[in-house]
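Batch job 17 of 40 flagged for manual review because the log was empty.
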Amino acid sequence: MTQPNRVEQTLQVSAEASEWAHFAPRYQALQDWELSAEGVPAWLREWSDLAAELEGTSNRLSISADLHTDDTAVQERYQRFMAEVVPPAQRADQVLKEKWLAVPGYRPTPDTELLYRRVRDAADLYREANVELGVVHSEQTTRHAQLTGNQKVTLGGEELTVPQVKARLDSPERSEREAAWRALAHSNEAVAGQLNPLMLDLLGTRRQLAANADLPDFRTYRWRELDRVDYTPEQCLDFHRAVAEQVVPFAAENIQVIADELGLDSVRPWDYNRAGLLDPQARPPMQPFSGGAELETLAQRAFAGLDSGLSERFGQMRQEGLLDLESRPGKMPHAYCNYFPVTNQPFVLMNVVGSAEDVRVLFHEMGHAFHGFYSGESQPLTWNRWSPIEFVEIPSMAMEFLTLDHLSHALSAEDLTRYRRQLLLGVVAFLPWAAQMDAFQHWLYVDAPQDVTVADLNAKWLELDRLYHPFVNWDGLDDTARAQGWHYYHIFQAPFYYIEYAMCYLAAVSIWRGAQTDPAAALERYKSALRLGSTRPVPELYAAAGAEFRFDAEYIGGLMEFLRGQLRDG
């Protein structure tokens, strides 16, 4: 069992190591280096080591802030690092990028070819004005984490965390679901008064980042910042249309079948949870475990059945304080995997409540962790680890499917069938949500008027929700709860990072389809693709994993037919 003090020990950063004075001399030495084409590899290794240490320090402080959103000292320490260390590091990195790019006669090696191009593009995007503006942006996103991390929900006279109340949405009792939904809506409305102006502030900051870089809008800026060179905004718009045509009717069909079997007159908001669709037999929610320790044991056995190497790495995370799974007050109500590059250690944060969804999320986050492990072992340069973001969710989402055949110890045959069906239906339910999230951001950062208001944001979200979720009946309810569905983590914290989930879910389904024919070969392709890190273009990474980099109507339609067959046969 992971003890909280072990986690805190893992996250410790000395006062000295979180000051700019700790990093500055090493940056200066790199700037002063007499650099020739032959000397670039050794110089890059030194720079990579420094960048890895800086990143690891930042990540430890960030995780601590997420675990202690109600601790002023922890929050201030993280913000001080972001304000006093990150800006001079960004300036120093820019000097080093320009130094590398100016080396006469240099030709990148195969493992640095893409890195060199990314450095060139990043150096071109750099603006001094955006360094300080980036501090403002960080303060604004941290404000969002504080507001949502400290959010409480009162239900039945009891004060609960958001994840604890969301778990009640899985109840077979409609009255319990409705009570939980209304309690969440009330809590969300209470914090909306602070989130709404915060979003407008963020929008202004993001528009200014683009203007400072001499770019027409924030979408163009973010496209370049995220290094999106393998697809265009227009292809994303095609994806939105393809989902509306190919997936929304399929999702509506699935939801109607469930509603008919439950005898529901219509599907109300408390009857639809895309992360955990209602059981058509009205069985109580599956509870495969109780508490983080049991979930760790469950996962350990599943990984042991799938692959000894994966099992060993999960065991390492348990031993080294790299898991913090329990939900508690003052902890950010989200789940993610972070990374400490110097020691090649991933860290998983979750908020478990004992549900089957928690099992899926842990496998998802551990897929990210395996990505960190394998790319870290194979790629010496820290920038070549992980992968472009269009691939980075494939390891996580594929792991959700690859573990399906290794849960018989935790779930009865009936519950395993139920869990599998829920996972497949969840893919279908997720794609309309992903399209809606992405479409909203294309509008927000390109088409929204300069003087856009919160009312405009709400109206656009309502328009999109009616397109992508027409099967949910909101009659008689205040539109506010529906209209403010854009109050979502990624909208505030990770702009334009969402369509990648859809791309990768499609690829994960394709990988799983291959695994049904030859599971050993599929797993080996999976691990081989992870080892490539960020050294190959996105389409090549997809191919290495056994998938195609496509998200057009024909491809999406074919995968939906595959899922339809799996649901029919399963």
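Reviewer: the log was empty due to a logging misconfiguration, but the result itself is present. Residues 24 and 89 are 8 Å apart (CA to CA). Unflagging and moving on to job 18.
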